[in-house]
Amino acid sequence: MDLVSALQASFAQLIGPSAIFYALLAIGLNLHFGYTGLLNFGQIGFALLGGYGVGIMTVTYQQPLWVGILVGLLAAGALAIVLGIPTLRLRADYLAIATIAAAEVLRLIFRSTASDSVTGSTNGLYGFADPFTRFSPFDSSKQYSILGVNFVGDDVWAMLVGWTLVLVLCFFVYLLSHSPWGRVLRAIREDEDAARALGKNVFVYKLQALVLGGVIGGMGGVFNALQTKSIHPDFYSTAQTFYAFGALLLGGAATVFGPVVGAMLFWFLLAVPDAVLRQAIAGPDPLLPLTDAQVGATRFILLGILIAVLMVFRPQGLLGRKRELQFDGR
């Protein structure tokens, strides 16, 4: 069994585009859940609008790429407003129900044959990322080695842009979390009534956090669309939101770098057993009697067990502080 190649493949997931996409989703969820206590189970819906904003405006309506990016982010913010106004004055579970339902409804609308002329239906959209690729200083036909792992030029460009965006957003979240606005969010998370008694408009602060986190989720959708150069509605399933939640809990909620570290480790810990198990079932005399489909399921089982154990012994996550989980403020 070649453990070196398995680790190299896992390292590619550690720093690759998938980790960037889920880091962006988790950063948005961190503003929602970590700092404000909002249960958003439909973060992938914001990413869907971000990605489709790019695809629809550039492919269907022949607009410049920057217009598509702007429309995608505005659509994500508008969705947050539409969902937040009727639900944020109610209990947290109403927002959870509304967001998960909205994300699934949007996915079904965008994949329906009735919207084929605009969204491409089940075929999706493609051919819109050329302006983004033209800015790349890397040759698309070449491979570049990063610590022994080869990436094609387009992926290196996407990773450079993506990790830069992640770092900028982390700095932005750091500034917000250490500002009076961020302290109000923490107060709302710990005790809404106390924050309201101090004269804070809890509804407005929660709506602002929901919009901001939703727009960051939309950025994740924009990045994924430009990196994969295609958009397919079935990618934006509910499971993607829970992967992002898993990354957030793994790294630590209410921390600046927790979502990023969690997203990197999430895909690294998925890739390690996947690479090892696939080597174990390869060849004429396999070590394990598993099929490819069973290997794919087994890696999620192992990661789920690991996260469950982490929640028992370190519920605040790897970088989190236990005090952040004390919602009663004591």
TrEMBL record:
Keyword Zinc-finger set for record: no
Transmembrane segments annotated in the record for this chain: 12-31, 38-59, 65-85, 156-176, 242-270, 293-313
Key words of the record: Cell membrane, Membrane, Transmembrane, Transmembrane helix
Chief place where the protein resides: membrane
InterPro entries membership: ABC_transp_permease, LivM-like
Bilayer topology term: Multi-pass membrane protein
Protein name listed in UniProt: Branched-chain amino acid ABC transporter permease
Localization per Swiss-Prot or TrEMBL: Cell membrane
CDD domains: TM_PBP1_LivM_like (cd06581)
Top-level taxon: Bacteria
Species name: Mycolicibacterium hippocampi
